[in-house]
Amino acid sequence: MAPDLTTDVLVIGAGPAGSMTAKWAAKAGARVLMIEKRQEIGSPVRCGEGMSKDWLPEVGIKPGRWVNLEVEGARIYSPSEKVFEINEKHAGNEVGYVVERDEFDKQLAIDAANEGVEVRLKTAATAILKENGQVVGAKVKQFGTTFDVRAKVTIGADGFESQVGRWAGISTNLALRDMDTCLQYRMTNVDSDVRYCDFYLGKVAPGGYVWIFPKAEGLANVGIGVQVSQIKSMAEARSYLDAWIDHHPGYAKGKKIDMVGGGVSIAPPLKQTILDGFMLVGDAARMIDPLTGGGIANGCIAGKICGTVAAEAVHTGDASKKVLDKYEKGWRVRLEEKLYRNWLAKEKLTTLSDETFDKIIDALIGVKLEKLNVHNILKAVHDKYPEVTKEFEAFL
Amino acid sequence: MPGKKSLHIESSGQLCIYCGACVGICPLNCIYLDETRITFDEKVCTRCEICVKACPVGAIEID
Question: Is residue A60 part of a domain?
Fold first, then answer.
């Protein structure tokens, strides 16, 4: 047994959301301890490694060595492989960088450490501590030694597999249709295009998509997400991905140099992310975008709000829900509407037949969309295939 | 619980890639991921088989 620790803010998990929360809490003068169960921050990577870039300045991230390249646009492939191209001009913030997540995560942890955050590796939370209904810290295990960390505010930033929220009393359980299970190979000697992130839709990836995110000339992340509710037998993420690669000679000739996997939530916004003395942020709070599967931006934007509010709670001496509600409301103002709208879209899109996907993409090709938004897309589809948009009228 | 099917998570490195998908989806929160081990609470598990489906590489077997 080691002596118990006391701090102002305990952040459980040193991924982007955790580091961002820790950084902004420390910037506002709080003492922060951030713990990470692994021996290395950011590794192994569990991410497609593609992200938009317009949100980076807002949370204080500068481009760095973690950027592989900047893409010009995205290509969406229908089931019959008609291609709809989106370039940056139209998509605005939806295309951006392909990154090295391990370098990115480490940089965010360095930024937090530079603000005074204490970081402990190989330190896992094993239980949440509560007194009179208020969360007062966590039991942790570091290099096999257990001790308590007492904190005025405890933050759960422990990722998709989050248990801390559930231990504290927030249900983060997912319905099977609100999860994609994913597998990705990093492959060299492939015919990817460094100008584009590619997305393949349809039954090749039920309830998800195959993605090709280029890292360098001839080097790309080749991955898949499959909706768990559509899975019928074991290891289907792997069998669907392997089948796709086999059918695409430009990738079948590739060599795998990395394999990662993981779960991605494609869920509607949680009803509650705070308790007395406790906040949940990032993938742990189910903030991943249900349509794209992207969670880094949302986790960091919420992390900045979370860290700022945590520091306020420390300074006022009140970490009750009443004070933490500023975070609850704050992240919802920024993120909730889009999360919910994209969840509705995903609920619809995951039921579409290959035939319908082909019609939608076909209708978009060759139409000069001024701006890429739901209205313009539906209008273009309606002009060519009105029977398809009938299904979406309710959604509009 | 007598008569329970046997659930086996292959986590010695042959199949499991320690991605945590099973940990996140378990409705009873009874799967645990240390850095290099996945274990589950035999007493709590009801063999719902959700983890079997969720595993991207099929490292969880049930019979």
Answer: no
Question: A87 and A154 in one domain?
Answer: no
**Which residues lie closer than 8 Å to A101 by C-beta, 6 or more apart?**
A42, A45, A46, A47, A49, A66
For residue range A278-323, list pLDDT tens digits in order. 999 999 999 999 999 999 999 999 999 999 999 999 999 999 999 9
3-class DSSP state of B13: coil
Interface of B with A (CB under 8 A): 17-21, 23-25, 27, 29, 32-35, 50, 52-58, 60-61
Q: Does A197 touch chain B (CB under 8 A)?
A: no
> What was the pLDDT predicted at A38?
92
Are residues A120 and A13 part of one domain? Answer: yes
| A-B C-beta contacts closer than 8 Å | 86
pLDDT digits (tens, 9 = 90+) for A335-359: 999 999 999 999 999 999 999 999 9
Residue A277 lies in a domain: yes
Task: With CB atoms and an 8 Å threshold, state whether B56 touches A262.
Answer: yes
Tokens coding A298:
């949302």
Name which of A167, A234, A259 is nearest B17 (Cβ-Cβ). A259
Looking at residue A189, which CATH number applies to its domain? Answer: 3.30.9.10
pLDDT tens digits, A67-114: 999 999 999 999 999 999 988 666 655 568 999 999 999 999 999 999
Min Cα separation B19/chain A (Å): 5
CA distances from B40 to A122, A153, B8, B27, B28 (A): 20, 29, 9, 12, 10
Query: Does residue A182 share a domain with residue A259?
Result: yes
Nearest CA-CA partner of A155 in A71, A33, A256: A33
Query: Would you call A259 an interface residue with chain B, using a CB distance cutoff of 8 Å?
Result: yes
Report the SS3 class of residue A291: coil
Is CATH 1.20.200.10 what the domain over B7-62 is classified as, yes or no?
no
Confidence label for A377 from pLDDT (cuts 50, 70 and 90) = confident
Rounded to an integer, what distance in angstroms lies between the CA atom of residue A204 and that of residue A213? 17
Taking the CA of residue B1 and the nearest CA in chain A, the distance in Å comes to 24
Is residue A235 less than 8 Å (CB to CB) from chain B? yes
Helix axes A354-364, A374-384, angle to 10 degrees: 100
Choose the mutation target among A139, A163, A177, A265 for the interface with B, i.e. most B CBs under 10 Å. Answer: A163
Nearest-Cα distance to chain A for B2, in Å, is: 26
Comparing alpha-carbon positions, the chain B residue that sits nearest to A165 is B29
- Confidence check on the interface: ipTM exceeds 0.85, yes or no: yes
Instruction: Please report the pLDDT score of residue A373 as a whole number.
Output: 73
